[in-house]
Amino acid sequence: MRLIGGRGLATAALGLMLSACGGGIVPPSGLSRTAPPRSAARSDQVPARQNAVPVRLPVAAVPLSAVPVVPVTGAMTAAAAGVIAGPPLATLPISDAQARGALAAFRISCASLVRRTDTSGLTRGSDWQPACAAAASASDARAFFAQWFETAQVGDGRAFATGYYEPQIHGARERRDGYVPVYGRPSDLVEADLGLFSDDLKGKKIRGRVEKNAFVPYFDRTAIEQGALDGRAPIIGWAADPVELFFLQVQGSGRLLMPDGSVMRVGYDTQNGRSYTGIGALMKARGLLGPGQTSMQGIVQWLHDHPSEGRDIMRENKSYVFFREQQGAPLGALGLPVTGGVTVAADVKFIPLGAPVFLSMDRTDATGLWVAQDTGGAIKGSNRFDTFWGAGDDARAIAGGMSARGTAFLLLPIGTIARLTGAPGAPAP
Asked: Where does the Lytic transglycosylase MltA domain lie (predicted)?
């Protein structure tokens, strides 16, 4: 999302519940494993819920050390947090496969990088033009990054990463007993850009609806599930399992597997404007999750085993996501395709959206070269990331338990750090 979309906890499982991306997400290929309908003779019957995919146990790794710095308290951008040079890019353990994947993603992002205003305060569109021009014909990916980029540590460099993926759930296009609606954008949902009213509110938006000449908050999850959207929003599909639909909203994008085997792809359209609450944190605080249940898979199992209590807990997340049917691959926050194992969501105030970043983490699967192509509602602050894993059983297994800590090094066009720090010989702003 975003999602899931928005999305931190110290434990692996609960991190995912807080890290949903707000934008769309796109898988490389593959479908999640799903259970067949209980009876082929009863096509109107609710299918058995998806088989549990165990959490992938991580392979430990030793992250590179960050450069010791005195952190800037309350910094709201990367420029304010401070940027210092990181290790020579050629010394980073970047595999050929990672470099090729990152180069392909960087090419996709270039059109946005050169024209987008970088709210991190680090780069200008012109800074990226030489590297983007070279990327178009580059054949040696590792050599390309070594030639055109330098590494930078933002703030203290201490990174935390969770994971997200594209779920697939059972669904239908027409209403069926036991199914719940998948809503499109409501006709009465209004988005207001507060920056149009006050310069102090630039970049801030709110969503709501008009009622008796007053602008009021939009319906929350409870009201929507109790029918508040009747006649107000299109139903683009139906989901067999409300718990899986909840996680589809957390992830921000996914697939509905139809009874005939066809697939409807749905992506994030908008959200009701209510704050996102990660239910994993609530369940953890209330002691509801026992040993082995602190993964996304464990949370889903608990919700299924306690349907009434689970419904009430899910309703404590007042945020509600509205979808649109998608043709072709879902898109990230740049409006461009994103890739499993390559795309990472980040806070645009600290990472230029479209920029490469090297994560050196305490688990091998999160370590490597990524490209910031997405955002998330809870992916906020310096060196906070949400790694995207695509679709399928592997993606669900990795993302469901992803919680990695280590060091982040942002890749910036060569000369950027000198310009920012005012070093001798730096190009003029």
From this structure: 168-324
